Amino acid sequence: MFRLAHFSDIHLGPLPDLTYRELVSKRITGFINWHRRRRLTLDNGIIDAISDDILNADPDHIALTGDLVNLALEKEIEMARLWLQSLGAPDEISLVPGNHDAYVPHALDKACRAWGAYMVSDGAPAASDHHHFPFFRERGPVAIIGLSSARATAPFMASGYFTEKQEQRATEMLDHAAARGLFRIILIHHPPVRGATGQHKRLFGISRFQNMVRRHGAELVLHGHTHLPTVHRIEGKHGASVPVVGVAAAGQSHGAALPAAHYNLFEIIGGPGSWQVQLTRRGAAVAGGPIVQLSTQWLVSTGPTPA
């Protein structure tokens, strides 16, 4: 059995002090949004509790699907780097960036340099900019393919992009993993599903992504961005149904409009043609309470479901 923990949209706070120069950009809208809304709905304490529970679950690997920071300030990026180090070593954690990690031009390159060891292919040097995506990692029976949908956008926009260049490289990785009989997991921040989020937050390149999965296959897609615990499905190779799984923001407090923070724990067993995957969501059932099992379901079962 392979156990994978997945969480997303950390939005580490509080915001550091900003200079006037830093505010002369899209960051002014994000700064206002933080003080009016986001700081009131995020809880760093629950992030710590979830992180502790993940480590206590002793997963074989951890997947993070972006938005570690809020405005991609240099101090935020460094704070996130230190937080990542406290969570685990780069070979234990796979990270893809989110739109907040690329909040303004050139911010994503700075994030890649700071967090690069967590989002590169096995054996490759740490990233120096955003051009190294996608990456490929093999962990036991699992292949992890990390895509970047992050790009700086205009104010009031949070859209993502899946480019033709990434598609070309990702298809090679999917085919290579299939030839080795690996369970293929794609990580991406924005949901590659139509209608999963508002038009100003959508992924450009959904058709390209879904056509890639239809032609080359995948077993599981994990995303963040929506702050919602969702399971969608898209068509895979030979008509297979591929789960596309979202998760609540890891710092979301109780009492907010969106679901409270939790993380996903996947248990993957079986082999090619008979993969079985159980998803358990874990979080605090009540404000300030312990992290507990919130729900469980089978996602993929191409063979008999275990008793």
Structural class: alpha/beta
Distance between the termini: 15 Å
Task: Give me the oligomer status.
Answer: single chain
Shape descriptor: globular
Strand order of the largest sheet: 3-2-1-12-13-14
What is the annotated CATH architecture?
4-Layer Sandwich
Unreliable segments of 5+ consecutive residues = 303-307
Q: Look at the structure and give the mean pLDDT.
A: 88
Number of helices: 7
Order of helices and strands: EHHHEHEHEEEHEEHEEEEEE
CATH class: Alpha Beta
Main sheet properties: 6 strands, mixed
CATH topology: Purple Acid Phosphatase, chain A, domain 2
**Rg, nearest Å:** 18 Å
Fraction of residues in H or I helices: 25-40%
Whole-number count of domains: 1
DSSP E strands, number: 14
At the fourth level of CATH, the homologous superfamily is Metallo-dependent phosphatases
What percent strand? 15-25%
Textual characterization of the structure:
The strands form 3 sheets. This protein has a 6-stranded mixed sheet. Strands 4-5-7-9-11-10 form a 6-stranded mixed sheet, covered by helices on one side. A hairpin with a 2-residue loop joins β4 and β5. With 307 residues, the protein is α/β, with parallel strands linked by helices. The C terminus is likely disordered. The chain has one domain: Metallo-dependent phosphatases (Purple Acid Phosphatase, chain A, domain 2), CATH 3.60.21. The chain is 27% helix and 24% strand. The two termini are 15 Å apart.
